[in-house]
Amino acid sequence: MSDLYDGDGSFTFIGDSRPDTTITVDSSSTYDSVYAQLSEVDAYSIGRGLVVSAPNAISPNEVQGIINAVTAPDKAETDGTIVKLTLNYTPNENVLIYGTYSEGFRPGILNRPGGASTSSGYTVPFEVQTDEVKNLELGWKADLADGTMRINGNFFVVDVTDMQTSIFDPSISNLFFADNAADAEIVGLETDLLWAPENFEGLTISAAVSFLSTEITNVLIPTDDVQVGDELAFAPEFQGNLQARYEWDLDSGMVAHFMPHVSYSAESYSDIIRMNRDTIDSWSMVGITAGVSSDGWSAELFVDNLTDQRAELARNYVFDRPRVSYARPRTVGLRMIKNF
Questions:
Q1: What is the band of 46 on the pLDDT scale with cuts at 50, 70, 90?
Q2: What is the mean pLDDT of residues 278-299?
């Protein structure tokens, strides 16, 4: 059954283009009145040539979805105020401590399948409201060991309200739609270090780690596919990297360097919707670079993903099939840079 919605409060079924099969639904229509019109017609054309008898031509949920559609808004807008406040404290010239309170939001979303409904009473919203975050952060920046070591870090707590998420549920609609699905809390710690040991000239060590604890604290939609206590998507509990760069002078006047590096990520989920999510496996990757540099130019040989790991960077699970995005396999190359 082909259909047209002209945006001004009516939804017209065209059927097989015969005048006596045209049915119009307006904002005052009810399910009974629409279905009564349908029952007066012998058959309807649905999709690409499929013809069915009137009693089976359209389901109660589809009729209700059509009635919902005639009240679809032609625009959406929002306004509000967000704040950010930062306080700094410097106990000495080598240490900075700061505290920050900040707020943020994402704009709302318009849903293509807005109005689709279920027998349980859930209706896909035409417009998804903004979601909001409130962030409380305590951080530090410190130069230690006579300036040979720098440590930065922060501890943060984030409250997410009315979190927007994409949903694919064929029992509701055959199209993806979005909704304000849940409230959540994020607690984390991040820190990075840069160290040039005074008694090991030419060596520089850098490292960074992050710890995350994420949790759905409240479910806002009537579904079992989002549950309180579940983790957020793409939020591994631990990530870290470490690299050591050693430089030395050559007799030719050039500077040579050698730098191994390693990175690691714990496992995480690809979605907060249980029927759409998959597990992203933990991974670790190792790489090496070595090269020389002089005034105005440098050349470097690199090997990324030395052990050729199939590191999973992203996953999704749609139409009952997992899809995986892997990191680039072992890659060997030569990088040359000329400065002008």
A1: very low
A2: 94
Surface-to-core class of residue 293, CB atoms within 10 Å of its CB (0-12 exposed, 13-18 middle, 19+ buried): middle
Q: What is the percent of the chain with per-residue pLDDT over 70, rounded to a whole number?
A: 77
Q: Are residues 336 and 301 in contact, defined by beta-carbon separation less than 8 angstroms?
A: no
Cα atoms in the Cβ-side hemisphere of radius 13 Å centred on 108 = 13
Query: How many CA within 13 A on the CB side of residue 237?
Result: 7
| 46, 115, 118 from 56: Cα distances, Å | 11, 21, 17
Residue 251 burial class via C-beta count within 10 angstroms: exposed 0-12, middle 13-18, buried 19 and up: exposed
Average pLDDT, the chain: 83
d(CA 122, CA 111): 15
Any idea which residue has 């409904």 for tokens? Answer: 117
> Among 309, 298, 299, which Cα is nearest to 331's?
309
Contact 263, 284 (CB under 8 A): yes
